[in-house]
Amino acid sequence: MTTSVRGGQLARLLGQWHSLPGRHKRPDYAALAGAVRGLLADSRLPLGVRLPAERELAESLGISRTTVSAAYRSLRETGHLTSRRGAGSWTTLPTGHRVGSSGLWAPDDDLDMIDMGVAASAGPVELVAAARAAADDLPRYLGSAGYHPTGLSELRAAVADGYAARGVPTSAEQILITSGTQQALDLVLRLSVPAGAPVLVESPTYPNALAALSARRARISTHGLDPRTGWDAELLLGALRQTRPRLAYLIPEFQNPTGHLMPASLRERLVGAAHATGTELVIDESFVDLPLDGSPMPPPVAVFDRHSRVVSIGGMSKAYWGGLRIGWVRASAPLVQRLAALRVGVDMSSPVLEQLVAVRLLAQEESIVAARRAQLGFRRDALVAALTELLPEWRVCVPGGGVTLWAELDGPISSALARAAEDVGVRLAPGPRFGLDGTLERFVRLPFTLAADDLTEAVRRIASVRHDLDRASRPAWGTPAVIA
């Protein structure tokens, strides 16, 4: 089903769309067409969306219908709009360009490369002691075959206690331990998304989630996040009601990559809309442990769930260590059993020793996570300071938590910048990796998980090549790297 946008909604997205005063003033129709193209490029206006009728948009903007007609004609000429008599006009990109998000690989270690493509921190100092203690616990399990498809009972209980502490009563039977958050998502998709099923995601979003959805051959529609304000409640809920997706994948806590935090009011309305449309909400809580400014956190989305519409996934990669492949699913107990039965055909169960390490680390959660937050807060501020000094023309909305900045560049140069940065020893995750359709070229994700000195040096190197992009031609993309 094609989503449509009403005149008032598009007018709100367009904002101040007229030509700026003091510059060469373009005709209103050209300024309007350019503003729509900008929304498409930033992925705030998804592809395949039916635009309002000319008269409706003219009334919403307070301009003549002739101006809107000329703007639509200009968009059709540039390939950004397709019209059919009696069916309306919907958004496209020239030549139907699309960029996939799969096919990523793990590069060889390069000590001279500052890798800003992976948004994950080094392991905490407590990890070694936890591993040694876990090895001492291992004999208790050696008398069995070692397969625990739902996870070790003590780890499931520890994770359930964490949800209860956040206001979501949870039993161990509602927890499935997985090999990382990515496997948690993959198992849910295997169970809930048949080929061709409609799915709603944010744009931008986590690239590996897009890869998992593509592997399921899902029919993906998007809700575009504003780079400064995040979710537009009416547009998001309207997309749910119009497309009625089988599943919606959302990251409400310090969204990856934008860092936005979804307000409590929208969380409650989201669950109500999902119940009305029969949509399963998959809520990725990978960053929920990482508020950095001391502000109170909104309640989990699952707090508002009364009809088993919310499946929460999370893990230990961001607050602890990515090398500890421990994730989980929180859902109803019957759904957990169905996921466990499916999981047996994938990898049987997670390693016992790693689960025992996770139990030890979760017992020290208060001190470990507090230290991680302090570390990330310092590094975030160092990265923002470097950008302000060396790339002041870039715009950044400083997040209140998580591990990434979503930087708006001074031009649609993200992929070219990533290629140039590679030549000076910086690996970047360009904006198009976080969308479906080759858009988001005005953005780049910058994690602040590296040491402050490395972040400052990375920005210095990026700034050194930024101003050469307009003059120098660059080679084609090399082999892609991991983005996490």
Architecture blueprint of SSEs:
Layout: H1 7-14, H2 28-41, H3 54-61, H4 65-77, E1 81-84, E2 88-91, E3 114-115, H5 126-137, H6 153-165, E4 175-178, H7 181-192, E5 198-203, H8 207-215, E6 219-224, H9 233-243, E7 247-250, H10 264-277, E8 280-284, E9 310-315, E10 327-330, H11 333-344, H12 352-363, H13 365-390, E11 395-396, E12 404-408, H14 414-423, E13 426-427, E14 429-430, E15 443-447, H15 452-466
Parallel strand pairs: 3-13, 5-6, 5-7, 7-8, 8-9
Antiparallel strand pairs: 1-2, 4-10, 9-10, 11-12, 12-15, 14-15
Stretches with pLDDT under 50, minimum 5 residues:
97-108, 473-477
- Rg over CA atoms, rounded to whole Å, is 23 Å
- Count the strands? 15
Task: Report the mean per-residue pLDDT as an integer.
Answer: 89
What is the strand content?
Answer: 5-15%
Oligomer: single chain
**Helix count, per DSSP?**
15
Strand arrangement, major sheet:
4-10-9-8-7-5-6
Largest sheet: 7 strands, mixed
Instruction: Give the % helix.
Output: 25-40%
Please report the distance between the alpha carbons of the first and last residues.
31 Å
Order of helices and strands: HHHHEEEHHEHEHEHEHEEEHHHEEHEEEH
Q: Pairing-aware structural class of the strands and helices? A: alpha/beta
Question: What is the 3D form?
Answer: globular
